[in-house]
Write a structure and sequence with these properties.
alpha/beta; 284 residues; 10 helices; 2 domains; Rossmann fold; homodimer; Pantoate--beta-alanine Ligase, Chain: A,domain 2; three-stranded antiparallel sheet; six-stranded parallel sheet
Chain lengths: 284, 284
C-alpha cells in the first residue's frame, strides 16, 4: 500500500530524500474521489518517473459560494487502494487548516486566460487552482506533473503558470477517459440521477457533432455552437451554461475557423444541480 | 571575478549542479546600483552558504506609471566588481524580455499586507516584487535568500509569501546600513542634489525621535507620528508621503502602543522627485 502523508513538512522531507537518492518524482494532483481518469494519470506518471505522489485535497479556495465544496465526494480509504493499485508510492492528503492557516494571504493568478469559459461562470476558481497547484509543486518537488485534458482550461492555465513563474517542472496532459457511452469520467457523475445519467452522454455527442460539422466544411463558429446547443436541448433536460469554439491557446472565442488553427471546442451543461464539462481539440 | 549569467536556463542548470554537488545556495536579489547595504547582504549570504548568487534585475513590473524605471541607475560592470569582492560566485542578470515574454500573464500577490504604506502609495508595486522574487527563487533554487530591513514592508510581504506558498527557502533579513550621518543607504540617494543630500538625514533623526518619545512613555501613536512629521517639516524641504506607527507583523496602523508589542515605525519622504524610505522596529 502507498504511504499516506498528511503533514506538509514530512512530505517535503520525503520529497527531498527521493530527489537526493537520484529518483525522479511524478505528481498527480487530485481532489480524490478517484476514477479511471485519475488512474490513467497515475499510470502515465509511473511510466515516466520513479516515484509517483498522488495528492488528494479538496481545495476550498477553488470553490465559489454555493458550489459543491461541502458535498464533494470524499473517501480516502478507497482513494488509497485505487491510487496504490495504479502505481502511487505516496498519497499526500494535507489538512485544509495546514494548507491555509488563519493568516494566509498569498494567491497566484494567471490573468486573462482565467476570466473566460469556466472562469467566467466560476469567478475566483482558477485563482484557487493555480494557488493550490503552486503550493503542491513546492511541497512535493516533482520533476513532472500530470493533468487531465478533461479540464482543458485548467491545463492551459497551469501550463502558462509553469512557464511564467519558471517552475522547473514538465507538465504532461493526458487524454480524457470516457465511459462506454462516451460520458467523460468525472467525480461529479455520482451526483446524477439515473435519468440524468442516461441523458448526459449527449454532451459528448455534441462534441462529435461539432467535429463532424467542422470537418464537413463549416467555418462559421457560431453555427457550430448553435448546432451543439440545439442537440443538447433536443436530446436532454440539460441546461447549457456555455458552448465555446475558441483558440486552443489564448482561449478567445473565434468567429471563423481557419485551416491549421487549433480549436478548443468545450461546453458546460447542468443537469439539475450537477454541472458537467467536456471538450475536444480540433485542428482543421 | 564572479561568473555573469544572463540566460535563465543556464542559471537553472548551474543552480542544479551546485545543489547536486551538495553545496548550499544563498540568494541576494537586487536591482543593481549596488551599495554597502547590498554588499552586507552578500556577506551574510556568504557566511551561511557555499555559493552566493546575486541577481541584478531592474524589474519593470514593480514600477508604477511615472516612477523612475527608466532613469533607475544601471552599471553592471561596477556591480560585478563590487558583488565579486563581497563574495558573490554568480551574478545573474536576466533580460526583461526573457523574464516577461509577450504572452506573460501570471502574478503572485500577497493580499492585505500590500495595500498599506508603500503599497497604498505605489499600487501594484508589491505584486511586481512578489512575482519577480518568486521567479528568481524558481530559477536560482536557493536554500536561503537575504533581504534588507530597509524595505521593511517588502520583507514582511516576502516572509508571508514564502510561508504561504511553501517555498522551501529560509528568508534572512539584514539590518539597515547607514551613511555616517544616518541616511539609510539607497540606490536612489544618487538622485539627490547636494542641498537635498544635506537635509535627508532628517529622516533618520525622525526615527530616533520616535524611539526617544516612545521610550520616555508616550503611548499615543498619533502623537509620535505628529512629532516626526513636524521635525521633517521644520528641518528640511522634504514632503512627507506618510509617517506610520504600525504593528510590525500585520502592518496595521495602531492607536496606542502596548508594552511588548513590536512596532514598525516607518516613513517616506520626497525630496523633489526623489522618494526615500526608512524605518525602525521598536519593542517597548
Amino acid at each position: 500500500m502507498a504511504t499516506i502523508i498528511h503533514d506538509i513538512d514530512e512530505m517535503r522531507r520525503r520529497a527531498d530524500s527521493i530527489r537526493a537518492s537520484g529518483q525522479r518524482i511524478g505528481l498527480v494532483p487530485t481532489m480524490g474521489a478517484l476514477h479511471d481518469g485519475h488512474l490513467s494519470l497515475v499510470r502515465i506518471a509511473r511510466e515516466r518517473t520513479d516515484a509517483v505522489i498522488t495528492t488528494v485535497f479538496v481545495n476550498p479556495t477553488q470553490f465559489g459560494q454555493g458550489e459543491d465544496f461541502e458535498r464533494y465526494p470524499r473517501d480516502l480509504a478507497r482513494d488509497l487502494a485505487l491510487a496504490t493499485a495504479a502505481g502511487t508510492e505516496i498519497l499526500f492528503a494535507p489538512k485544509p487548516a495546514a494548507m491555509y492557516p488563519a493568516a494566509y494571504r498569498t494567491f497566484v493568478n494567471v490573468e486573462g486566460l482565467t476570466d473566460v469559459l469556466e472562469g467566467a461562470v466560476r469567478p475566483g476558481h482558477f485563482r484557487g487552482v493555480t494557488t493550490v497547484v503552486s503550493k503542491l509543486f513546492m511541497i512535493t518537488k516533482p520533476h513532472i506533473a500530470v493533468f487531465g485534458q478533461k479540464d482543458a482550461q485548467q491545463t492551459a492555465v497551469i501550463r502558462r503558470m509553469v512557464r511564467d513563474l519558471n517552475f522547473d517542472i514538465t507538465v504532461v496532459v493526458a487524454p480524457i477517459v470516457r465511459e462506454k457511452d462516451g460520458l467523460a469520467m468525472s467525480s461529479r457523475n455520482v451526483y446524477l440521477t439515473a435519468e440524468q445519467r442516461r441523458e448526459a452522454p449527449v454532451i459528448h455527442r455534441s462534441l462529435l457533432l461539432a467535429e463532424e460539422v467542422l470537418r464537413s466544411g463549416e467555418r462559421d463558429a457560431s453555427a457550430v455552437r448553435k448546432r451543439m446547443g440545439e442537440l443538447i436541448a433536443r436530446d436532454s433536460s440539460g441546461i447549457t451554461d456555455y458552448v465555446s469554439v475558441a483558440d486552443a491557446e489564448s482561449l478567445r472565442e473565434i468567429d471563423f475557423c481557419s485551416p491549421g488553427e487549433s480549436l478548443l471546442v468545450s461546453l458546460a451543461v447542468r443537469f439539475g444541480t450537477t454541472r458537467l464539462i467536456d471538450n475536444t481539440t480540433i485542428t482543421l
